[in-house]
Amino acid sequence: MSAAPVHARPVPGGRIAYVDGRYVPHAAASVHVEDRGLQFADSIYEVCAVLDGRLMDEEGHLDRLERSLAALAINMPMGRQPLRAVMRETIRRNRLKNGMLYLQVTRGSHKRDHPMPAAHRSTLIMTARPINIAAVEKRRLDGIAVVTAPDIRWGRCDIKTTGLLANVMAKTHARKAGAFEAWLIDGHGFVTEGASTNAWIVTEEGVLVTRHLSPNILAGVTRLGVLNALALEGFNAIEERAFTLEEAYAAREAFVTSASGGVLPVISIDGRRVGEGAPGAATRRIHRLYAEFARAAAESSAVCASQLQQRPIL
Ligand code: PDD
User: Fold this and answer.
1) Is 259 in the pocket of ligand 1 (CB under 6 A)?
2) Is 5 domain-assigned?
3) What are the residue ranges in the chain where pLDDT is below 50?
4) Which residue's CA is minimally distant from atom 18 of ligand 1?
5) In terms of domains, do 79 and 160 share one?
6) Which of 111, 132, 168, 198 has the highest Cβ tally under 10 A?
7) How far is CA 247 from CA 204, 210, 236, in A?
């Protein structure tokens, strides 16, 4: 997730995780020592935001989960409908009002051997954790700093696997440099995406640019939400294409998108001011349009706040 792990109030009664059919206290949750997710990162994941008790962009995350699983021939651990029920139950048991829901599906446990086993039973893990909304909103108000790093990842970044070491290294580099995110640069000087976000710029001419979908980037669910929200507004000055780091330095505005932060303004890249060095008007407007669009879509998936407070935790 791109948001720093700022914990809000602890969950009364403690956090609850879901592992393979059981809800267990977070600290006691575990998987098999030979789980292929652990040994080979033979495993995919999703991170969904929960805002005011509502799951945001749920269908987009489930669509991508299914795409990632299909690409690796990992079985869906259960049907989509029961999966939705487990997601809601995990939110409810954690009394999660504002936070992140994490889902992971691995190819299950087997004697360690590289080839994919002929048959498997997937492991499904879900955890939930509160986030400090005020900290995220402060980031949105102040903007974030970005530094760049070479994109040393593999050739299938469109699959949301837990093989995230290159992302982890880039993010650590950013934090050590006092930045919030790292933008990854391919061998030709083009920005691919952030270590855990999609990258966007607004050119001097007011054109919104974000990289086209390909195996080189993750098809962000928030990215899609932003594009859909803007299409509804009839905004069509959008180019889905690769942009260079030089273009990014010269941009009027820049921002990142992810489930954990929504739309976050970028105010500097490698220490150089972007535009006026403050969050820009276009970025603010795009955030507002996306937030309204995503909230409206999430209405139907509401787990209302009163339920969260009244129902017993276990
Ligand atoms: N990160 N690109 C990468 C490499 C990502 O890891 C993510 C998500 C995104 C944005 O995707 P979405 O809008 O669907 O969140 C782009 C999640 C939040 C994470 O790893 O925690």
Assistant:
1) yes
2) no
3) 1-7, 303-314
4) 1
5) no
6) 198
7) 10, 12, 20
- Residue 253's alpha-carbon distances to 47, 217, 227, 249, 274, in angstroms, are 26, 21, 17, 9, 6
What's the gap in Å between 79 CA and the centre of ligand 1? 24
CB of 222 within 6 A of ligand 1: the answer is yes
Ligand 1 midpoint to CA 312 (Å): 32
Q: Whose CA is nearest to atom 5 of ligand 1?
A: 196
8 lies in a domain? no
Q: Is the CB of 257 under 6 A from ligand 1?
A: yes
Domain containing residue 79: 16-131+302-310
Classify residue 125 as exposed, middle or buried by CB count within 10 Å of its CB (0-12, 13-18, 19+).
buried
Annotated active-site residue 160? The verdict is yes
Question: Residue 132 and residue 51: Cα distance in Å, rounded?
Answer: 11
pLDDT in tens, 170-195: 999 999 999 999 999 999 999 999 99
Q: Whose CA is nearest to atom 11 of ligand 1?
A: 220
Instruction: Find the CATH number of the domain harbouring 174.
Output: 3.20.10.10
Q: Verify whether ligand 1 is closer than 6 Å to residue 298 (CB atom).
A: no
pLDDT digits (tens, 9 = 90+) for 234-263: 998 999 999 999 999 999 999 999 999 999
